[in-house]
Structure formats: C-alpha cells, structure tokens
Amino acid sequence: MSTQPKPRISPEQYLALERQADHKSEYFDGGVFPMPGATKRHNMIVSNIVISVGAQLKDRPYWICSNDLRLRVSPTGLYTYPDVIVVAGDGLFADDQKDTLLNPALIVEVLSESTRDYDRGEKFAQYRTLASLAEYLLVAQEKPHVEHYVRQADGSWLLRETSRVQDTIHLSVIQCRLPLAEIYQKIEFDS
Fold first, then answer.
1. Model confidence at 144: pLDDT above 90
2. To bridge 145 with a disulfide, which of 39, 54, 140, 182 should be the other Cys (CB 3.0-4.6 Å)?
C-alpha cells in the first residue's frame, strides 16, 4: 500500500485526459474519480426516462441527453456525468468542444447502492449551486421510488416523493409528465 499522496491535476489537465479516455471519470478539487459501469436495470431506467420525456419535448425548446454529456458545476468545480439532463435552448458550454455543459434545467440520477448517499448528499449540494437547475430527480432502481426536488422562488427546495407505480411526476420546469409506470416499464424487481 502506497502512502504517497495522489497527484493533483488542474481542470484543464483533467479535460485533456478525459477527452482521450475510454472510460468516464468525475473530477473535483484536483482529484479524478473513475465512474463505475451501470447495470442493465440502471440503463433501462435511464432509457425509459429519455424516451418518455424526450417524446414530450419533441416540439419544445428543450433537449434531453443521457450519460455521456459532461456537466461542469462552475461554482464548485465539479465535473460529472448525470444520468439524464434536460437543457433549455441550445445550452451553454464551457468551450468550443461543446462536450461540457454549464446550464441544466433538470437533472436525473438513478441511484445505485454505491452512489445513493453521494447523489443525495454532496453531489446534490453541488448541483444546487447551479442557478439554471430547477428540478432534480432521484430514481431508485431496486424498487419503485422517486424523489422529486423542485427549486422554490425563494431558492429553497421542496421534496415530493412517491413509491406508487400509478403516480405521475409533474416536471414543472419543462411542462412534462413522467409516470412511474413508464420509468419502470419492463423492470423486474427482486422479491
């Protein structure tokens, strides 16, 4: 076991390495953190959300993407890859590469055992510093359950959550409906 400290790198060094890498990594405060691969269930939930919301955004001034678009949380310096992002208009990007987004309106994270505490805690704390972010969804994959955070006019966040498959999440910032039955379509849960 090495007691040597890991070398710190700059955001510019991270981006140069990340743009050449064959796997995704997050970056924060000089450290690079490899992202684990996703399960079939995780990928199916992400796809279900993109299909459901994407169909509703077809003729609206928003676009949706999943997993591969990097997000920079400028106020904190975090670079990460949310599971789903919805953006208003053309979006703002960090540079001409147009691979690092700055202004999501909605972020969705599908929870896994290894990331759920981070997604609810430190990551959400950093996401909340984004002025453009109006809604945040946390979607469980081991059972039907969605946590829906909505930014209020005073800057506070209101939490609504449900575990009922017959319920529908109302995404007010993009004026879309997201039924839990569509989120969990074809998902088989362990008994």
1. yes
2. 140
